[in-house]
Each structure stands twice: as structure tokens, then as C-alpha cells.
Amino acid sequence: MSIAWFEHGCCTGHTPQMSGGRIITGFVRGIGTEYFASGVNPTFSHERYYEAHELILRAWTETGPFRYHGKPLLGFAAAKGHLSLYPFSPQVLEAVAPQLDGYKRSKGTLRFTADRPLPAQVVTEIVQRRMAEIDGT
Fold first, then answer.
1. What gap in Å lies between CA 78 and CA 84, rounded to an integer?
2. Which domains does the chain have, with CATH numbers?
């Protein structure tokens, strides 16, 4: 499954028909020239690959929030009509609020749908702000 295929909405409607209800994934590490072209040291690719692989499997199989230094970092839930993201911090949600036009939110919850996912840069900022909050910076 390519990212482009997923972003164009094909994944949500056609994957169950094409795969019999399973999600089939593939993970790659890339080749040396890709690392050098992007200025990344390839000696760390193996450990980063397994770190990402473990995180993806945890996201698919575990319940409860992701933790950072023993504190809740981010949680997710699925309801009948929406998905929810829980950053465990009203201050973090307030900080990214200008980027959330059209999304429903409450003091500690951000709601979205599969048809209108959260922008990746907003999720990244939420995680970075929450980590800084936990670190006390």
C-alpha cells in the first residue's frame, strides 16, 4: 500500500474488498543512496526501522495511551461517527487551535473522521508540544 494510494481515499473503500478484510502492509528501509541524498547516516537505519515497526504494531494492537517518561502522551479512540485524539493537555489543544478550523474539539479531545483526517503537521506539533510539557520545557 503506498501513501499516495491511502491519501486518495482508496484504502478505506477498497481494502476490505481487495484483501478480504485484512490490511496488508510492507515496510522498507531504503538503500544507501537515499540516505546520503537526504543527509541521513545509514548506520542508524536498522534500529530506526525496528523502532518504527514496533511502534506501528503497538498502535494496531495495544489499548490505552502511548506513554512518554511514564506519563500519558497521546491516546486514540474510535466511535461510531468519529475518531478521537487525546493529548491529555488542554494547553496543547489550545496552542494548536488556530490550525483546527472545522474540527470538533473539547477541553481534552479532538474529533475527526476518516474522510477528514487530521493534518500530519498538526499531529506532529501536538506530540512535540506534549513531550515538551512532560519534560517541563
1. 6
2. 3-61 (no CATH), 66-135 (3.90.1150.200)
